[in-house]
Request: fold
Amino acid sequence: MTDGQDEKKSRTGADAGKGAVYQGAFEAVVALLIAAGLGYWMDGYFETAPWLLLTGIAIGFASFTVRLVRLGRWMRHQVSDDTTKTDENGL
Reply:
């Protein structure tokens, strides 16, 4: 491959990583909002305010945290793979 093709391939991988980070952060926030919204709706339906809202927020925050931890592990794995590939190529 020429240097231009290597650079283009490298940028594509970096862009894919950035996209995955934004997607993961978006999914984490949406999970929190959905769980809180569901808790709010259930409070109105069952007249248990504010307990189901608080439960929904706790569940949403837990899923938010799990998603970000998984995203961090994925990013760490990607960085170690990139470092290994760079070392193998001697660059």
